[in-house]
Amino acid sequence: MSNEVGALLGMALCSLGFLGAAIGIGLVFSKMIEAVGRQPNAEPKLTKFLWIGFAFVEQFGLFSFVIAILLMLKT
Amino acid sequence: MESPLHHFELHPIIPLTLLGFDISINKAILAMWVGLIVLFLVFRLAIRGGMKLIPGRLQSFAEMTLEFLLGMVTEYIGKEGKKYFPFIATLFLFLFSCNLIGLVPGSYTMTSQLVVTGAFAIFIFLMTLVIGFARHGLHFLGILVPPGIPKVLIPLMIPIEVISMLARPLTLAVRLFANMTAGHTLLGVLFGMALMAPLYIGWLPFGFTVVVNGLEIFIAFIQAYIFSLLTCVYISDALKLH
């Protein structure tokens, strides 16, 4: 398997990393909606944690994007 | 179709060298200067004519920003957080303006380069080490031992804690770099698709580009906020040793 084919396959496999990020973001927001549904006046306090949690979860998907970019630049 | 990363390339506008290092003026430097000048003007014009007791619009916007940052610093570091407030405020405002100025078409995002965010992260890591050793002396190495574990496990925990300590500046740098690079690459790819397609399909990726642009503005703010928030957390870790 030549270098280029291996790099392209690696980049394609890196796109699976976003699966975890997507499930994680769904979990974070679904818990937020449930919490606001139970106690609507907790919303301002929970919104701050919502966006912090979203950024952290999104980060792990973007780590796999960085690996894909590294592979692309290797060829 | 060109590589989606081609608009991250930099070409010197005014070439300068200093002792063999290339410090030429290019688009990134100009974008950073424009961002800094806008930031300076926003805060300078807010108190034009003296600070009023009942603030006008721009002054109250500046006050809200600084109150938000002061609240964040005192919440995470505590009472002595006010000493670190100028540093954290400068960090947040500089990162926010660098992130935001890159969304103007034709300009460059300074923080989408790993060297820039890596320099920030390494400096902050060294700063926490200096703060920790200055405050606690050699006892600062106790940060590697989390409280409340049986004594037998300590030799096992120390390499794990060292690795997680070293991973902090790495993730701090890569988080900001990856978010900015991914956002701009996505915008480049989407807009390329919108240009390549004929008009009766081309409006769909164009609309999507507009939506993602709005998301990017929000992500610029969130990433600058998360960077400065984690800096506050690391400083409070060094000051308080858990």
Short account of what is shown:
The complex is a heterodimer of chains A (75) and B (242). With 75 residues, chain A is mainly α. Chain A has helices at 3-14, 17-38, 43-74.
Structural write-up:
The complex is a heterodimer of chains A (75) and B (242). Chain A has helices spanning 3-14, 17-38, 43-74. Chain A is an all-alpha fold and 75 residues long. The longest helix of chain A has 32 residues, at 43-74. Chain A starts with a helix and ends with a helix. The mean pLDDT of chain A is 89. With 242 residues, chain B is mostly helical. In chain B, 68% of the residues lie in helices and 4% in strands. In chain B, strands 1-4 form a two-stranded antiparallel sheet. In chain B, strands 2-3 form a two-stranded antiparallel sheet. The longest helix of chain B has 43 residues, at 154-196. Chain B is globular and about 70 Å long. The mean pLDDT of chain B is 87. The A-B interface holds A 51-52, 54-56, 58-59, 62-63, 65-66, 69, 72 and B 5, 171, 174-175, 177-179, 181-182, 222-223, 225-226, 229.
- How do the SSEs of chain A run, as a string of H and E? HHH
Question: Low-confidence runs of chain B (pLDDT<50, min 5 residues)?
Answer: none
Distance between the termini of chain B: 53 Å
Taking Cα atoms only, what radius of gyration of chain A do you get, to the nearest Å? 18 Å
Taken in chain order, the helices and strands of chain B follow as EEEEHHHHHH
Which descriptors apply to this entry?
heterodimer; A: 75 residues; mainly alpha; 3 helices; rod-shaped; B: 242 residues; two-stranded antiparallel sheet; two-stranded antiparallel ribbon; 6 helices; globular
